[in-house]
Amino acid sequence: MRYVFLLVLLSSLRINAQENSGIILFENNIKLHWTIKTFNEKEHQIKICKNDFGVQYICAIDNAIWYGSDIPVDKPKNQLTNLVLEIGKNKIILDVSSMFNPNFSGELSKHQFKIIKEGNQYVLYGFFSDGVGTYTAHWRIIDTISIREVISNSEEYFFFLF
Over 90: is that where the pLDDT of 91 sits? Predict the structure, then answer.
């Protein structure tokens, strides 16, 4: 019986290590549901390139520029796989493609986000960094539709932090 309990406990720890999720609460009962998953190289296409000095680096994941590392030779540790903004009864799915290593802890927190209401629209700003790769994403939400307007590591897009 002890072995069965130990096996169940170890299995649950393994599952928890592979996926983590939570909810961030904002004012006016707005919620942000998130899921971060351990990066599994077998689930992705990784393109390796060489720079002018012959050094190899990861230039694309799933045929897209990826965010989450300033050291593109290292594979991501995890990836943001789900963000859903809940406003009243509406649940709006946000684009999280190409978003890796969203922070150091593997859990998102309220201080990484800022949400602003602009008339009948909302804009959600997100700040992501694992200590090495820093980037931001901005989503515009109109009714139940969202579009990611920005994903960038360029400093010009971090204005919402100040």
Answer: yes
